[in-house]
Amino acid sequence: MSDFTVSSEAQAFSLQEREALYKAIFARRDIRSQFLSKPVAEDSLQRILDAAHHAPSVGFMQPWDFILVRSDAKRQAIKEGFDAANARSAEQFSGERRRHYQRLKLEGIVEAPLGICVTCDPSRTGPVVLGRTIKPEMDNYSAVCAVQNLWLAARAEGLGVGWVSILDDEVLRETLGIPEQIRIIAYLCLGRVSAFSDIPELERKGWLPRRPLELAVHEDGWQATQQQQTEQLLAEYLHEKGYE
Ligand SMILES: Cc1cc2nc3c(=O)[nH]c(=O)nc-3n(C[C@H](O)[C@H](O)[C@H](O)COP(=O)(O)O)c2cc1C
């Protein structure tokens, strides 16, 4: 007897369901300035974590874990780690670009009531994993798929997520007691928000534009002209914004 008891037609999404999915995708934002301190409802959080846990994973190894960071003291320690890493990061830009970088708000670690550290255990399910035999880094990509599920589910629940990557792993290892063999994939801030913007904050603040889709799609092979067009658009944008 087949496991597939429902025909594929019956499993199709209705128009409304499709619209809801695309709404979550297009309305998702990276949030750092608009967090409210109100707590996240536990039932929403469980649904979001369950959505993350249903992400695809190489060989179905499910390499992720989610460390919930509710402690004010721990979030404060992580924020201090961010401040140090952010000061070092600013030095990698120069001139007006550095000044612009320094004006950006790139985290909401303390404002958001909840942090979630997503990790990847490369040894989960044993030393040889179906699908990782040639490209072992696929475990990391699987954990990133969990992050994306979490991010979209949070948006559907009306909650904002901000990914903070300007952080040394050591800060998270020490603060959260993460063993050396477990990889750190993401530190996310999660919370209720005052507003979701229609466009990414970095676009709104004139840092970078969204690249047109047609330049990202290549037919039957790599097209160098699309890369050149992308570079030209970017140069024009930066020139327009007063960068050289
Ligand atoms: C892997 C990854 C790391 C990121 N790290 C940071 C970060 O450290 N700080 C920050 O403000 N935003 C971070 N972001 C958010 C991006 O800036 C944001 O996704 C991008 O500007 C597009 O905006 P949107 O997510 O609102 O569509 C990160 C996003 C990803 C996918």
TrEMBL record:
Top-level taxon: Bacteria
Presence of keyword Oxidoreductase: yes
Domain Nitroreductase, residue spans: 26-192
GO molecular function, one term: 5,6-dimethylbenzimidazole synthase activity
Signal peptide positions (record): none
UniProt-listed InterPro entries: BluB, Nitroreductase, Nitroreductase-like, Nitroreductase/BluB
Its EC number(s): 1.13.11.79
Coiled coil, from the record: none
Keywords: Flavoprotein, FMN, Oxidoreductase
PANTHER family the record matches: IODOTYROSINE DEIODINASE 1, NADPH NITROREDUCTASE
Protein name (record): 5,6-dimethylbenzimidazole synthase
Annotated source species: Shewanella indica
